[in-house]
Design goal:
Oligomer: single chain
Shape: globular
Structural class: mainly alpha
Helix content: 40-55%
Strand order of the largest sheet: 3-5-4
Distance between the termini: 97 Å
């Protein structure tokens, strides 16, 4: 043999060291990245020599016969390797057989499984909590479709493998994120928690610390939430909540792995309970959690911040839980009651809907996902999803700003049955659900009526978008009247137990107190939507289209009904009276009714304005707004604006001027819930735009009126400014 012809040694083994170890002649431990490269900060690469590849080819056959020769890297290498494969050759041969394709698919499946195992070893992909132990699994391990090797029956599964590889590639994170395990949870008496530190030193670095009330105090707060608020939300299963609370405290006290969803829901319930907390008359009974209602209200912002802390940590690397979405929905209601329809509230609503989609709530009743579902879990998932969807639709139809006329979920984008009309106590996992007729009161009756109203609101939004360019055409007004017909039909056909007329002169101590509150809330929501629908036609004068008179009458009728429902609630003596003005939905209805009644009086009956602000529904509406000024900056601002408008119209009508707004308020008889005339600052430290008032209530209305231009006519008052300020107010 000629010496010029190079010949490789037949006994030489393949390459088993990385490039760096081969160059430095170091011992390379496998798998890569090796210890030598890690200790020196080198990139561990493995580029096999041509002889190594040649020696490996017979050991890794992909296909047999005349099929294309596709060379794949070894499957036992690290995902960080940079493999340089030789060019793929495609000899002109016959088409591969079915057996060859199946063999290639099986090889791809094996590579996929090996890749997943290496991904789990090198990243914090997903953390699950089971029996108090931390279990790190990949997306494939949680999906039985990608579990153990299964026989390949068709080459169409290649697309499934490719799709799963994309999921694996997108599941990586570039750095370690803060999780729930990086938060310290401690227990303390609820009165001492405001003075407790929010950060503690742990392992030489500051660590967030979330404090929880004692187990007994948490049960009291849960009971208060269920009695006060749950009847108008009803997104939790009340019989199961005690077990959830017990489980959360067992995890904390036993230093076990926490379920973030349980903690988030617990903190949200505490925030909601403190916001609407009402003490007894003495306020100092044994076992009372708070000395006064003000002390409880002052803690609300603290619990909101704690909920945000755990929520942000849980979203980083924890599996999504239904309790997490429930907690966000409850927390959003608390934020809305404090801040109004603020950016923070809309963000929470969007987050809940996003997590709901990730959790699969929007397709829970698809055939592929409904099989084998647990009855209780499935039914609660339906309630949570439809609650979020209904809130989204109601928001789009009621409130102005950038979100007006925009909702996030369309019926065509979800497959979810509506919740059954059933009591919580009747839901049993081992038995099928039996929905009661709609005319039979259950725990979900109000929920279903609210959902029906939301569907009408979505129809209003859809038609408004279609007719946005034709607002002056008859077709647009025909749409308004069609939607009014739907609203009026719902008002007339509500179940009898939701008809407020059936509760006139009736005591609420006969077991119907909860249904009465639901009837009151539903009445306010329906008539508020009707006022909003016809508001643009309220200022139509005699020279305008006479057909608009029907809109004006409908708007005024609904405004009067809102105020009369408030008066009926006050006369009932129900405990809900003490918390109703802390709920944004009720406040917005009162605000809307007062503006509508004052607009109509000033524009159409200016001569009787003095009489109407002294007695009647308008006077009652002004009293209600005055009562809520003590803890609502929006109410204080609106009340001042309304008083200025009254002063302006008095001047134009040559009426005797009153010395000051305080003097005007003395003409209005006080209501049982009258409070201070000066707004407090309980929540001024809780983010957002405070909407600080300009001017004081001490300025005389006659001085304000004298400063106005005498040439202002009745129809030149900027009524829209009242609604703009009301919709954009950061605090309710």
């Amino acid at each position: 043999m000629s010496a010029s012809v190079p010949r490789e040694r037949a006994s030489r083994k393949g390459q088993f060291s990385c490039n760096f170890c081969r160059a430095r002649k170091l011992r390379c431990d496998r798998p890569l990245p090796c210890t030598s490269c890690r200790s020196r900060g080198k990139t561990c690469e493995f580029n096999p020599t041509p002889s190594t590849l040649k020696s490996q080819q017979p050991r890794t056959p992909i296909s047999t016969g005349q099929s294309p020769q596709i060379l794949l890297p070894q499957v036992d290498q690290s995902p960080f390797l940079k493999v340089t494969s030789p060019p793929v050759s495609f000899p002109q041969t016959t088409a591969p057989t079915h057996v060859d394709l199946l063999a290639e698919i099986q090889a791809l499946r094996k590579i996929t499984q090996d890749l997943e195992q290496r991904v789990v070893q090198n990243s914090n992909s997903q953390q699950l909590h089971e029996n108090g132990n931390h279990i790190f699994i990949s997306e494939a391990d949680s999906n039985p479709k990608y579990g153990l090797p299964t026989p390949v029956s068709s080459h169409g599964q290649v697309s499934e493998i490719v799709s799963h590889l994309q999921l694996v590639s997108m599941s990586q994170i570039s750095q370690r994120l803060v999780g729930v395990d990086d938060i310290v949870f401690k227990i303390e008496h609820i009165r001492a928690i405001p003075q407790a530190p929010t950060f503690i030193a742990q392992l030489g670095k500051p660590t967030a610390c979330v404090w929880l009330p004692t187990h007994a105090e948490a049960k009291v707060l849960l009971a208060h939430y269920i009695a006060s608020i749950s009847c108008i939300q009803h997104i939790i299963h009340q019989p199961s909540m005690s077990a959830v609370i017990n489980d959360a405290y067992k995890q904390i006290e036993g230093q076990q792995a926490l379920k973030p969803g349980h903690i988030i829901m617990l903190l949200s319930i505490i925030a909601s309970a403190t916001h609407v907390w009402v003490c007894c008359e003495d306020g100092k009974s044994d076992g009372a959690l708070f000395l006064s209602s003000a002390q409880a209200h002052a803690q609300t912002s603290m619990w909101i911040k704690a909920s945000h802390t755990v929520l942000n940590a849980a979203q980083n690397n924890s599996a999504i839980e239904l309790e997490t979405i429930q907690g966000i929905a409850i927390l959003g209601c608390v934020v809305c009651n404090i801040e109004g329809v603020s950016l923070r509230y809309r963000s929470l609503l969007s987050t809940a809907m996003l997590l709901g989609r990730e959790f699969g709530l929007h397709r829970i009743d698809q055939k592929s996902t409904a099989k084998g579902a647990v009855t209780l879990r499935t039914e609660m998932s339906r309630r949570v999803w439809w609650y979020l969807v209904a809130t989204d639709w109601l928001m789009a139809a009621r409130f102005g700003g950038s979100g007006e006329g925009v909702y996030q979920t369309h019926p065509h984008h979800m497959t979810v049955n509506k919740p059954c009309n059933i009591n919580d106590s009747d839901i049993v996992d081992t038995e099928p659900l039996r929905s009661a007729p709609l005319d039979q009161p259950t725990d979900v009756s109000y929920f279903l009526q609210r959902l029906r109203l939301a569907e009408i609101s979505r129809s209003i939004v859809d038609h408004n978008l279609i007719n946005a360019t034709s607002s002056n055409r008859p077709s647009y007004y025909a749409h308004i009247m069609a939607m009014d017909f739907e609203l009026d039909l719902m008002i007339q056909n509500v179940p009898s137990f939701f008809n407020l007329d059936n509760y006139i002169g009736r005591s609420q101590t006969d077991g119907t107190g909860t249904i009465f509150i639901q009837a009151y809330m539903l009445n306010s929501m329906m008539h508020l939507q009707r006022c909003k629908l016809h508001l643009a036609y309220l200022t139509s004068g005699p020279s305008d289209n006479p057909a608009y008179a029907a809109s004006r009458d409908a708007c005024l009728k609904s405004a009067h009904q809102i105020i009369r429902a408030e008066s009926q609630l006050l006369q009932s003596g129900h405990p809900f009276i003490q918390i109703r003005l802390r709920l944004a939905a009720i406040l917005y209805g009162i605000f809307m009714a007062s503006i509508v009644l004052l607009m109509d009086a000033c524009l159409h009956r200016p001569a009787t304005l003095e009489q109407e602000i002294s007695s009647g529904d308008l006077a009652e509406a002004l009293r209600m707004i005055r009562d809520v000024k003590s803890h609502s900056l929006a109410a204080a601002t609106l009340h001042e604006s309304l008083m200025q408008i009254v002063a302006r119209y008095r001047t134009q009508q040559r009426l005797p001027a009153i010395g000051s707004p305080e003097h005007l308020e003395t003409q209005l008889p006080p209501t049982p819930s009258s409070g201070s005339a000066r707004p407090t600052s309980d929540y001024l430290d809780w983010g957002g735009d405070t909407g600080v008032l300009t001017g004081t209530f001490g300025n005389g209305v006659d001085q304000q009126a004298n400063g106005l231009d005498d040439s202002i006519f009745l129809d030149q008052v900027q009524w829209d400014d009242l609604f703009t300020g009301l919709a954009s107010s950061s605090f309710f």
